[in-house]
Structure formats: structure tokens, C-alpha cells
Amino acid sequence: MFERIDEKKAQLDAARPLPKYTLKSLREKLFLEWTYNSNAIEGNTLTMNETKVVLEGITVGGKTLREHLEVINHRDAINYVEEIVQKKESLSEWQIKNVHRLVLKGIDDAYAGVYRREQVFISGAKHTPPAHYRIQEKMEQMMNWYYEDGIHLHAVERGAMLHAIFVGIHPFVDGNGRTSRLLLNLELMKDGFPPVVIKVENRLAYYEALDKVHTTEDSSDFIALVEHEVEDSLDLYLSAIS
User: Positions of the site: Important for autoinhibition of adenylyltransferase activity (predicted)?
Assistant: First the structure.
């Protein structure tokens, strides 16, 4: 199922360690695109270039404080995810709450890293997330799945399924989408894959594939979408060393 991306990853692994400045520029490029696209999917109106200057510490006129914070927070959350990977830490609910706390920091501190205490609905989706009083149980079930079944899956499938299960639970009032994409990349990066970028122009296919997982338990479209983005990131890295 994942033969082609495994072959490409093997090529990348054989070329490691990559030249220092090549690696630095690839990382900066992917992290900018990841931050821009993940925020844009959720309605942030900063362009790619505006996102870049905000990351450099410059304020963009005519944009809200929230939009600026979403960029800074996403950068901090990526740094935290990298830290988890470097320390080879096992996934935990505590880590997930920490990622979310960084995503919502300064935007909605009362809800940052705190499971929701009310019902929410996902705009445009057929799926309705579970009632708030079932969230703890659902998150524990997700963690059990991760350690009993997910751990044996290919990193791409494991990351995609973790993302899909998490976003189906929708454990937080806000910031679930960004957090789910950070968790997806956490799993990929743990296995030595470069991070993937779910592109804003693919938002419709992305939402439809996720809704299909939640309403029919058919995850094939969503896994295929993630697999395509993984291959894109691998191709970018391989183009830098060819």
C-alpha cells in the first residue's frame, strides 16, 4: 500500500545527513507552508508572505490580533512537536493538551488545553461530535486504540487515523483542526518522514474524506489524501539532494 513512499523515504534516509543549510531551508519552507495552510483552512486571512513576515516578528496592518497569534502559536506548537520527536517521548493525553494549549494561547486561555464542557457541531459535516460528558471516555478509547492497534500500523496510516479519530471526537471548543494536523505530523516525524502540508486548496476533499471516515468508517480516501501529501513532501526533500 505504501511501497512508493517507503522507497522514496529509503532514498532520503540513504542521503542523510543532509547538508546543514539545505536542511535548514527545507525545514523553514515546509514549516511556513504548514503554518499558512493549517491556519488558512480554519479561516485565517493572512497570505503566505504575510505569514512569513509575522513569523519574522513584523505586524501586518489591517489584520486582527487573533490572526497574528494563530501564526505565532502554530510556530510554538511545531517547536513543541519537534521537541517530543527529539526526546522520543510516547504519545499521551497530556501532550495533546499541551499542543492545544499552545495553539489557543492568548486567543482563548480559558479553553486552552481544556476539554470542552458543551456540545459543538462541525460546520458542513454530517457527523456530530460526541456529547461533552463522553469526551474523557472517547479520548481514553483513542489512546487505547493507539497503543493496541495504531502502534502496529505504517506511520502514514497511523498518523491519518489518529488525526481522523481525534477530530471526530472534537474534544476542544476551538483549535481541533490545527491540533489534529500537528498530531498527524508528530506521528510522521517520529518515523523520520518530513512533515506534510494539507493544502487549503484541497480543503473540500479533505473535509469530505474526514466526514466519510466519521459517517461510514471508510478511511481509505483520507489515508490516500495523506499519502499523497507525504509523497509531495518526500519529493521536495529528494529534489534538494538530486
Answer: 42
User: Using one digit for the tens of pLDDT, what is the confidence trace for 158-174?
Assistant: 999 999 999 999 999 99
Of residues 132, 170, 214, 228, which has the active-site annotation? 170
**Domain containing 63: what range?**
3-114+128-241
The C-alpha atoms of residue 65 and residue 69 are separated, in whole angstroms, by 6
Annotated binding residues for ATP, as ranges?
174-181, 206-207
Residue 120 lies in a domain: no
Q: Is 122 among the domain residues?
A: no
Residue 68 bears catalytic tag:
no
Name the domain count of the chain: 1
Q: Which three cell numbers stand for residue 45?
A: 486571512
Report the CATH number that the domain containing residue 72 is assigned in CATH: 1.10.3290.10
Domain assignment present for residue 121? The answer is: no
